[in-house]
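User: Predict the structure for this protein chain, please.
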Amino acid sequence: MPSDTAIPLPAGQALRKLGRDLALARRKREGDLEPGDHVAALAALRADLGRFDVVELVPEVVARVHHLLARHVLGAGDALQLASALALRPGKERAAEFVCWDDRLRAAARAEGFVVLPPK
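Assistant: Here is the predicted structure, written as structure tokens:
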């Protein structure tokens, strides 16, 4: 994460970024979004993404996904999310926050040393 910011930035994977673009395209195609609203939503999304740290799907992240799948009861998408967060974690000497609502992902993130939010 950038060290010059007072507020930690949210993170995401490149696949999730693509997924959001595809979801907006689907909503436009299905008539849920007017063409002008689709353009505005894409522009807002892309502006917001400039504030995110994006984790690329590099071999080290894929290896971490396999490791997490062997250690925890997770689906591939959740393991990818957790592996991406681990790639951004500032180090084990300082706890990083991980936000999710899925109980299995929460347990795995906690086991990997994250402070899981929101607290339950």
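Residues 14-29 form the longest helix (16 residues).
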